[in-house]
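Example with several molecule types.
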Amino acid sequence: MSSPAVTAEDLTVVYGDKAALDGLNLSIAPGVIHAILGPNGAGKTTFIRVATTLLTPTSGSIHVLGRNVVTDAAAVRDLIGVAGQYATIDEVLTGEENLLLTGTLYGLPANERRARAGDLLSRFDLTDAARRPARTYSGGMRRRLDLAASLMGNPEVLFLDEPTTGLDVRTRNALWEEVRAIADRGVTVVLTTQYLEEADALASRISIIDTGRVVAEGTPQELKSTVGEEILSLQPADERALSDLADAVGGEIRGQHVRVATAKDGINSILATALGVGPLASVTTSTASLDDVFLSYTGHAPEEEALPEPTKRRRRGSS
Amino acid sequence: MKKFAIDTWALTKRSLVKYRRNPQAVVLTLIQPIMFVLLFRYVFGGAIQTPPGVDYVNLLIPGIVVQNAVFSAAAASVAISDDLANGFTDRLRSLPTARLAPLTGRVFADTLRAGLLVTVIFFVGIVVGFRPEWSWGLIVAWLLLMLVAFGFAWIAVAIGVSVKSPEVAQSAGFIWIFPLTFASSVFVPVDTMPDWLAAIATVNPVTQFADATRALVLDAQITSALGWSLVWVVILTAIGATFTIRGWNRMTKP
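Resulting structure tokens for the full complex:
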């Protein structure tokens, strides 16, 4: 087993009196796509900022490819690439100029700089737009340029902070393909996301984080199977039967409903048990979502956090 | 050191390209000083007392170039704050960029821009009747103006890295410039001011810059004001760079 690409030990970042990271432990194997999944405010971006030398942790340690990120930051910067939620490109420069500037800052000689910029522009389908200012690019093109820039230094570890947030489905799928292609070349990809679907589609390992800690870790399959594939929402005809119903099927009361997670082949037995308690007014099923994974590992729904904007998005997703 | 020079130059070019590709901004940057020249030359000029035998336009133009060297540098506050707000600075800091190159690149870009701006104003001045002494004094004056812009660019960058948003940088970056450039000998002789203001204007570094520039461009004279100007440039640079680097290093603290 080769040594890990990224390790974090008891990593803590305290802003004022609020801990954005609260003793985070993480080990990321080399050459894989590893997703860090959590809602807004869980500490995902803070983790990326610490790992990419932008933020010094309050305590704990973090290593990238064996180098201490705090004390050996310069060496770490040579080995990593970063692309963000907000594509951090210069709007006025052309796509090509953005890449060449990044290449200069990586210390590449002029001919190598130009060759690599040309390669990346064609790989990310930006050759035609190479000489246009980046401000004329669409959202998807910006992300691709951002991704291309993050690869100018031939990084061994690539950090992607919510790379598809705000993208439409088609653009997102195209970006997923790019990320897979990058990983196929042996680059370790560390990706944060708030979408279970994205972690599921890309990552071979997922760490779920909440309030600055890892609360669960495993392959997508492992995590989903612990939550159950299907979520049943049962409404008893008689409201007074709610708690009896919840006890009988081992679910939780949510308003007028009882929610219970199960594997696909468990649906019949749950319904049978439920009907044993009394008649049902309604039954709905949905597939496991971030909410459900989250609920099962943290004991609280992400809705309970005072996060107005993403809360809305999640409600839509789970209803 | 070599990496520092290469990165600084790469980022200087990046900042200059941004100005060049924004013709509207270039035009606006030029309109304001030209309006000042016309306003003071033709509207206020006649009412301003000048020493006997001195044409006001000859006092005005060396003053206005100093004012613009300072104004031009102040743009650095907003530019650096923009880069911080939109994440571009984060990218630079996560790359193996020489640590201070994003700052020095910005300062050099604004210094060069100021050098260009004062050259344009100088020739506009010629058109409206300004008559300098054509001598080495002009070159020394031009270099002095670049140094003035350099010193103030450090102050502006210090403000840019200290404030929370580009909007704040916009006001914080310019608010100090008006009293600083008007309570000075830039537009009027200091002895026409009330005593208390004259006292302030006399110690104002901008007065030293304007007096030094006038002596150089009108008479090719090296004066004590030039000496004081250089001292002030060193002081401004030292203060600006100290606070800039302090703010820059603080950014990695949570």
